[in-house]
Amino acid sequence: MNYFSTNRQVPATSFAHAVIEGLAADKGLFMPETIPALSPDFFTKLPSLSLPEIGFEIARNFVGDEITESDLSQICEEALNFEIPLNELDAQTHILELFHGPTLAFKDVGARFMSRIMSHLLKNETKKVIVLAATSGDTGSAVAQGFYQVPGVEVVVLYPSGKVSQVQEAQFCTLGKNITALEVTGTFDDCQRLVKTAFADTALREKLYLTSANSINIARLLPQSFYYFYAYQQFAKKYKGPFVFSIPSGNYGNLTAGLFAWKMGLPIHHFVAASNANDTVPVYLETAHYTAKPSVSTLSSAMDVGDPSNFARMREIFGDSWETMKQRITGFRFSDAETRKAIEEVYKTYNYLIDPHGAVGYLALKKYQKEVENVPGVVLATAHPVKFSESVTEVTGQQPPVPESLAVLLDKPKKSIPLPDDYQLFKEFLLSKNS
């Protein structure tokens, strides 16, 4: 399987090269030349497969012979060693709980898989590798935890100062060792721009071995498709017929991974792109015009992205056809006030605590069912409510339980380095890591 850049200014390359490079030299995102349809035999076996087995069966189609099947199987077993349960609120409303990993967020799936893939591919590399990750919240903690104390790898996490929750900050600003947190004066988009500029800086990359850990990286994106199959496996045990996925969306990696699953043959009827005030993609779906804009701060902070990187991959999947994309995806936007009401509604109706991102997904599902088509739906719950405890408690009066894995981090001192939104200063910092 070869991988091409969405900007098409560099030659196609191998899976290993795409993973290690992260972002293509022309600033494009790597895409597989084909998204293979999975065999009928796979779907026959699907009801009995474990999550790691599902991951292995899918990943082998994208990795080819670049990683042995035994090594790939072991990677999947290690990375996917926690449950992803489908919680039924009612017959029309289901919550896929993606927050049972070590950092209580969906990005554990991608980050743990990617870190082990990358470690395997770099096992004979003698030069220090620097992993760059811009985060609006959960990516930082998932990547930091995934690579913590991995030999030969330095992780640099950039995050917008004051724009991530205390819990999220604690999960990547308390580790130290090979993890460095840069607290950037600006927005997530500013952090992402610094990372992209570094990858495009030829002179810098001649001196440093840089790679990415956002959903920019194909090895972070690919495993996110696994849990769509796992959700379907659980859903299909009770229900037959069409169903939709409602996906809280920021950088659109989760939705793009769902599209991969659909292209591989998973019978997903429709996708609902659930957005907060950062509604670039819903506006595109309504108007056929894509206009990147500065992100604005919201209650669902991990979705505060005004120019989502993975939209380039979405365009590739649909052949840059607005009409075709609109047939498969419906987008909705919601305010913070609506999000708070949804958190309250879910608690009062179902006695279920949901975080602000999941609440946006819930709102989008209900709106789709009311205005478009009343079919059962699955909401991706991307974070444990404790990660946004202040908001959840304020609305419901209920304090989400604090898992022990998180409690120990909250007592540790914060370790971060302030950084202005200045590429030259960022570059100087990176060069200092090589001294």
From TrEMBL:
Broad EC category: lyase
Q: Which cofactor does it need?
A: pyridoxal 5'-phosphate
GO molecular function term, any single one? threonine synthase activity
- Pathway the protein contributes to: Amino-acid biosynthesis; L-threonine biosynthesis; L-threonine from L-aspartate: step 5/5
Answer whether the UniProt record assigns the keyword Ribosomal protein to this protein. no
Q: InterPro entries annotated for this entry?
A: Ser/Thr_deHydtase_PyrdxlP-BS, Thr_synth_N, Thr_synth_N_sf, Thr_synthase-like, Threonine_Synthase, TrpB-like_PALP, TrpB-like_PALP_sf
Using the record's annotation, list all stretches that form the Threonine synthase N-terminal domain: 2-79
Q: Which UniProt keywords apply?
A: Amino-acid biosynthesis, Lyase, Pyridoxal phosphate, Threonine biosynthesis
> What's its EC?
4.2.3.1
Give the catalytic activity: O-phospho-L-homoserine + H2O = L-threonine + phosphate
Q: Where is the Tryptophan synthase beta chain-like PALP domain?
A: 96-374
Protein family per UniProt: Belongs to the threonine synthase family.
What name does UniProt use for this protein?
Threonine synthase
